[in-house]
Amino acid sequence: MDYRLRPASPGDDHWQLAIYASTRADELALTNWPSAQREAFVMQQHQAQQQHYRRHFPASICHLILMADEVAGRLWVDTRPDRLHVLDITLLPGWRGQGLGTRCLCALMDEAAVTGRHVSIQVEIHNPARRLYERLGFLPECEPQGLYQPMLRPAPTVQPEECLP
C-alpha cells in the first residue's frame, strides 16, 4: 500500500472540511439537529481548529495523505527541536482499518529517529486509536489533561514490530 504526502493548499479546503467532518459524524448522528445545523456546526468547529493550529503552531505543516491520486486523509505535524508533534492524523472512513495510519506513523517515527527526536501526540482518553499508539511504543507523557492524554514515543530505541519492513 503505497501512499504519498502532499502539503495541503488553500484549494484543498473542501478536503480539509470533509476529513474533519468525518471525525464528528458519529457524535452528530446522536443529535436531532437538522442537517443545516449539523453542517453549520461542523464548519464552525473546522474553522476554529484550523485557526488554532495556525495560530499556536505556525511552523506546522498539514499534508494530505494520498493513495494514487485519491485523498485518504491528513497528517498535520509540528516540527520542534526535540520532537515531531502530531497535531492531527485522520483518515477518511473508507481508508480506516487498513494499516495506512500505522504506515504514516512509522514513517514519521523513522524520520524522527534520523535526528534523535521524539514523536508526540495528544489523544482523547477513550479514542480507540490510543491502542495503536501504545502498540507503536507511545507512552503517557504526563497525567491526562482534561479529556486528552499527551503521549510520547521516546527517541530511538527498538523499532516496533509493526514498523519493520
Automatic annotation (TrEMBL):
Keywords: Acyltransferase, Transferase. The keyword Secreted does not apply. Pfam families: Acetyltransf_1. Signal peptide: none annotated. Residues 17-156 form the N-acetyltransferase domain. GO terms for molecular function: acyltransferase activity. The keyword Lyase does not apply. Its EC number is 2.3.1.-. InterPro entries: Acyl_CoA_acyltransferase (IPR016181), GNAT_dom (IPR000182). This is GNAT family N-acetyltransferase. It comes from Pelomonas lactea.
